């Protein structure tokens, strides 16, 4: 229910449990792939955490998936992001998130340090939602 609430807040929703019990499958079926979610959120991204963590690849992955939600803009914009770094990638994500609701699922997030690395990139927009498995 909380993920469907309207409001200006941005907050994480965690799904915790032992490895291999089906947390990712649950989130994918119940949240990410549901028709209700696709109509409630303008931008959707399912990100599998990489190790070692690469902030730029992480940001490019979000941009690519957000652009897939935008008709007509994907190929041209994705190719332009290959030359972007750091702040420009964050700015691009925030531009894509403007004026709409966003859902970013972080699959395989397992340490506070990883969360610290990614939250600053995604926490600025009041309508963003994050699901961590």
TrEMBL record:
Domain NB-ARC: residue ranges: 7-127
Gene Ontology terms, MF aspect: ADP binding
Organism (species): Triticum turgidum subsp. durum
Transmembrane annotation, as ranges: none
SUPFAM superfamilies: P-loop containing nucleoside triphosphate hydrolases (SSF52540)
A Pfam family recorded for this sequence: NB-ARC
InterPro entries: NB-ARC, P-loop_NTPase
Chain segments annotated as coiled-coil in the UniProt record: none
Protein name: Putative TdLSC5 protein
Domain of life: Eukaryota
């Amino acid at each position: 229910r909380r993920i469907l609430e309207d409001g200006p807040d941005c907050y994480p929703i965690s799904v915790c449990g032992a490895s291999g019990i089906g947390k990712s499958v649950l989130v994918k079926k119940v949240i990410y792939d549901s028709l209700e979610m696709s109509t409630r959120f303008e931008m959707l991204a399912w990100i599998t955490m990489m190790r070692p963590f690469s902030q730029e690849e992480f940001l490019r992955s979000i941009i690519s998936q957000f652009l897939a939600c935008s008709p007509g803009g994907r190929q041209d914009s994705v190719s332009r992001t290959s030359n972007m770094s750091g702040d420009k990638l964050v700015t691009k994500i925030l531009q894509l998130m403007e004026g709409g609701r966003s859902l970013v699922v972080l699959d395989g997030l397992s340490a506070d340090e990883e969360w610290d690395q990614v939250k600053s990139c995604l926490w600025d927009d009041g309508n963003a939602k994050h699901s961590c498995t």
